[in-house]
Amino acid sequence: MMRKNLNLLTTHYSLQTKSGFSLLEMLFVIGIMAILFLIGTKIFSNSSPKYKVDNAVVIVLNLLNEAKSMTSSAVGSSQYGVHFETTTLTLFKGETFSAVDPNNREIILNENVNLSNISLAGGGADVVFNKLIGTTDHHGTVTISLVSDLSVNEIVTILSTGISY
Q1: 46-76 as b/e: b if 16+ CB within 10 A
Q2: How many domains does the chain have?
Q3: Short name of one Pfam family for this protein (predicted)?
């Protein structure tokens, strides 16, 4: 008899226990997750202005290195260069930049940054690399600045050896 009562208690107890979450608990968790999502979105959408400039520097350096590499490797038996404008960079083939060349690859920078103080040997806004050796006669500097605060800037330097940093 005692054994029978114990079985009934166990059965009754297991019927009383709940599994899962209540609606209130689920709403509470979803609310917390929504708040955390909004905070995270706000933090990353307003990333530091310095980050935007640094990102543009990486883009400029990568395009310069690509032009130098293509010239050194004699891709298409040609020279390659980079043309600088205020908000765009253009990778071009040949000794001189032509805005209408369909082979140009234009990169538009983030609207929050621009290029200024383009100071290259020989004047102009083009860095052209010499065939096979990858040097350039158009060495100099380009400043990348935040549009809203020109004091937030970085200077990209292009050496005559073709190395840029």
Answers
A1: eeebeebbeebbebbeebbeebbebbbeeee
A2: 1
A3: N_methyl
Tell me the per-residue pLDDT of 106-132, one tens digit each, with 9 for 90 and over. 999 999 999 999 999 989 999 999 998
CATH code: domain of residue 143: 3.55.40.10
**In terms of pTM, does the model score above 0.90?**
no
- Which band of pLDDT confidence, cut at 50, 70 and 90, is reported for residue 62? very high
Does residue 18 lie within any of the structural domains? no
- Name the residue range of residue 65's domain: 49-158
Contact 125, 83 (CB under 8 A): yes
Structure tokens at 105: 């690859």
